[in-house]
Structure formats: C-alpha cells, structure tokens
Amino acid sequence: AQKITQTQPGMFVQEKEAVTLDCTYDTSDQSYGLFWYKQPSSGEMIFLIYQGSYDEQNATEGRYSLNFQKARKSANLVISASQLGDSAMYFCAMREQGRGSTLGRLYFGRGTQLTVWP
Amino acid sequence: AAGVIQSPRHLIKEKRETATLKCYPIPRHDTVYWYQQGPGQDPQFLISFYEKMQSDKGSIPDRFSAQQFSDYHSELNMSSLELGDSALYFCASSSTAGPYNEQFFGPGTRLTVL
User: Is B94 in Cβ contact with A110 (below 8 Å)?
Assistant: First the structure.
C-alpha cells in the first residue's frame, strides 16, 4: 500500500496567490517525520520543510507552511505569495521512526507538478 | 555551504555493461542514502549506510551493490545493466546531530542504458 498519497498530479496558481498541495500518509508508527521536497526541471531535490509527529505547532519556513492534521493523517504544504520560480514538482515524503531511529528511508508520494502563471 | 557531490552527472551505457556511481556526502554527515527515480516516477529507496555500515536495504536489484568507504564517500555499482535501469540516481546524506535529520540530496546521476 502506498504510504504517501498526493492526489493532485498538477496544480496551477497565479503569481502572488497562495496554493495548497495535498498530502496524506499512512503509518502505524507513533513517531515519524514528514518532509516536503521541491524538484525543479533541472532535477535536483531541494528540502523545503519538516514536521515531526509530536510537534504541536505547524511548521513554517518563510513562504512555506505545513498544515498538519494528525487525526486525518494529512500534511498539506501551503505556499504563500507564489512566485514564477516556484514552478516545479513537489514531493511529500515520510520517514518512519518506529524504534526511535531517525536514520530511516524516505517514502515519497508521486508528486504534484505546480505551475505558476503570471 | 558544502553540498552532496555526485559523479558523473550523466552516464550512457550499453545493455549488459557495468556502471559505478560515486557520492561524496556533506562533511560530518554520518548517513548516506541511495534512491532511484525512473522517468515520471517518485524516488525509490535502494540502500543506506550509517557510519560505513549498511543500515537499511530497499528494492535494490541483486545486480547492484554499494558500499561506503573510510572517507565516507559511497559508490553504487551496477552490473549487467538493463534498459529499465535508465533513471536518475540520487545520493542523499544526513546527520544524526541535526535537528530534523533531513536528507540533503545531491544533483543526481542521470543514467541512460541503450
């Protein structure tokens, strides 16, 4: 079963508007970490933001914020004031930490292609 | 700031040939991961090393092997290459001393098998 589900293959947003990219996850671990990565057309994977399962507040990093709803197992990425340079593929990922280890592999969703138009 | 270095960036091989991909993690990072991303796919975990010991193994074919050396660089060796091995191969590194232990990815090696 897919551990990370991203239901939006593509999203479009106008410059300066906010956009929400959806992510739901599936795990039986109590301790886990959720990540968002950006992959521009050049191919590199850029870390954006992290949310730990025990974090009570939603994570924020500049224009990025993570809307974490633990009971719903969702971790949506919100990008405020979109810029043309935000056009890229966005991946949600999870690291399970069942034994307290933070060395675990990342499980990725299939990604959402975001296009920002002027 | 130093980033993860991967070489080569692009590699073209024929079927049944071998390939070696190299990864140099961020200094003082103690864990290295390898991922494979097929065209239009999400990255899939292959294998990881913590302090030069294999720490986890994913869907890595038996034709592939990897190791981490004393200087912490890692190599992914791929033999009997198949057309389906064409993909972007990422190396990532992380530090257990970091606040999130997030994985920092290298630029990837794009392997094309003809």
Answer: no
